[in-house]
Amino acid sequence: MNLLILAGKPHINMVNFINNNWQSDSKKMQDHNSMSEKNTFEIIYDIIRQIPYGKVATYGQIAALAGNRRWARVVGYALHATPQGSGIPWHRVVKKNGEVFGGAESAGGIYQTELLQKEGVGFTDGYVDMKKYQWNKVLF
């Protein structure tokens, strides 16, 4: 059995579990340009690549666009597993309240904030102004 350590605890390999169970959970995806042939992370990466320069999306928004609005954590797992040099704009995904990865004061949060500010994304008290900068893409 493959084990993955998350939050210091061993878990069944979530990547394999999610990819093996995706089809049964998202019949909607069959109509999305052959996306049903891709694994879950590839679908998530395809959606993240669509976020426009200067805009952000939430974990839950990406999950809903991928076919299951309850999979915000899966989006987080996918971002954690993003291949280095993939060009996936991971920094454009934030929490629903506009908080960046790890909080504004963490090393990752500072880096993400810098990347977003270079794209013109505005912040108020360390949070993205979601009313102004959230990507308005919806499922249909």
Mean pLDDT: 81
Q: Describe the largest sheet.
A: 2 strands, antiparallel
Beta content comes to 5-15%
Uncertain regions spanning at least 5 consecutive residues: 1-12, 22-34
Question: What is the number of beta strands?
Answer: 6
Shape: globular
Overall number of structural domains: 1
The separation of the N and C termini measures 39 Å
**Cα gyration radius (Å):** 15 Å
CATH architecture: Orthogonal Bundle
How are the strands of the biggest sheet laid out side by side?
1-2
Helix content: 25-40%
Describe the overall structure.
It is a single chain. This protein has 140 residues and is of the alpha+beta class. The protein has one domain (27-133): Winged helix-like DNA-binding domain superfamily/Winged helix DNA-binding domain (Arc Repressor Mutant, subunit A). Helices cover 39% and strands 11% of the residues. The chain has six helices and six strands. It has helices at residues 14-25, 40-49, 59-66, 72-80, 107-118, 130-133; strands at 3-6, 9-12, 57-58, 93-94, 123-124, 127-128. The strands form three sheets. It has a two-stranded antiparallel ribbon. The chain has a two-stranded parallel sheet with strand order 3-4. β1 and β2 form a beta hairpin. The chain starts with a strand and ends in a 7-residue tail after the last helix. Mean pLDDT is 81; it is low at 1-12 and 22-34.
